[in-house]
Amino acid sequence: MTMGNPCAIIGVGQTAYKTRRLDVSMAGLLREAAVRALEDAELTWNDIDAVVIGKAPDLFEGVMMPEAYLADALGATGKPIMRVHTAGSVGGSTANVAASLIQSGVHDRVLTLAWEKQSESNATWALTVNSPFSTSLVVGAGGYFAPHIRAYMRRSGAPDHIGTLVAVKDRQNALKNPYAHLKIPGISREMVESTPMLWEPIRYLETCPSSDGACAMVLASEDAARKAPGRPAWVHGTAMRSEPIFFAGRDTVNPQGGKDCAADVYRQAGISDPRRELDCAEVYVPFSWYEPMWLENLGFCGEGEGWKLTEAGATALDGDIPWNPSGGVLSSNPIGASGMIRFAEAALQVRGRAGDHQVDGARRALGHAYGGGAQFFAMWIVGSDKP
Ligand SMILES: CC(=O)SCCNC(=O)CCNC(=O)[C@H](O)C(C)(C)COP(=O)(O)OP(=O)(O)OC[C@H]1O[C@@H](n2cnc3c(N)ncnc32)[C@H](O)[C@@H]1OP(=O)(O)O
């Protein structure tokens, strides 16, 4: 894939992430994020050429095809609106599709938005029952991913406490993020280790919560970015890959789709050593053990070495390659929005707008999302300089 015209992120809007946003309807939740993104860009609905939205499967909320009635709430009446769908990675894929509308020269300003209002229903239940003609995921996403984590531990020889370290680090970061769902003062290894085992080896405090929330961005052409009030983030590369959930020889611990996606986005951004050349990363880690697993899949280290980076503190806010300074998916997981939050947080970092969880001097950052049975991948690299 080639990059096309330059694309900038000129506005970011997030809602607070919470267990239940009973104060707003689904439309109200979306509008909150969209209006904040427009305010950040000092624009109104009239300035937007098209809207690209995404959310995870409708069964997660029990609301079918919500896009059919949301055009009004999103200021999209009379404008093109499209929905993207790639399971949990959808927030990332949605941003990439929106970026492609700028890069191709079709539009100048695109509003992109992703959300989940899990309190409308119960996504863990939705991922537990057998749909007709499909294999059961056992008990929620945790039930599906736990055996892959066990396989990783066996293959890499990682000691048991690595997952605990990630859980503590990400929740400590979340204390610095005003939007984060889980705020656990005094979070410690002892606290994590004392919580019940949900899906062995995943403990209660090693899993993400179920959140309501939405995230929006305004993407702009070079011309439109020049007129924007603040410092933009520039897209240096976008990539997506998919693979079937089952095939002979599939490596569920270190999926080929993720490796290929990373290689593609690094090539576009001219990156050969991500640990050295990136300043921080927002990576989709819903269960703590996915940090060392994705460190390897994304080429930040060799196979079997990811847990050593985590253990050495390399991914901490003051480490050499901070991962999830915002607190990540472990601290807030409105599933459909979570990929876009990663992408938006990467953009905030290189705009110098990440507040208390800002990584000093961040100039290049990775946003990452995965979904389905670790079979859909979406990534972007953003930077403070125009590529
Ligand atoms: C690609 C992907 O995204 S894969 C991941 C998909 N998502 C998941 O698998 C979700 C996993 N999490 C869950 O299923 C649930 O949150 C569980 C099982 C951990 C907890 O279930 P419940 O106790 O029913 O949680 P419920 O949502 O009702 O929240 C109850 C309280 O516990 C808190 N809570 C929920 N999960 C967690 C957690 N993992 N750690 C700490 N606190 C939590 C909530 O914030 C809430 O507190 P509040 O009332 O002060 O807001």
UniProtKB/TrEMBL annotation:
Pfam families: Thiolase_C_1 (PF22691). It comes from Actinomadura viridis. One of its GO terms (molecular function) is acetyl-CoA C-acetyltransferase activity. InterPro entries: Thiolase, Thiolase-like, Thiolase_C_2. The keyword Transferase applies. Keywords: Acyltransferase, Transferase. The lineage of its organism: Bacteria, Bacillati, Actinomycetota, Actinomycetes, Streptosporangiales. It is an enzyme of class 2 (transferase). Its EC number is 2.3.1.9. The keyword Membrane does not apply. Residues 255-381 form the Thiolase C-terminal domain. PANTHER family: ACETYL-COA C-ACETYLTRANSFERASE, NON-SPECIFIC LIPID-TRANSFER PROTEIN-LIKE 2. This is Acetyl-CoA C-acetyltransferase.
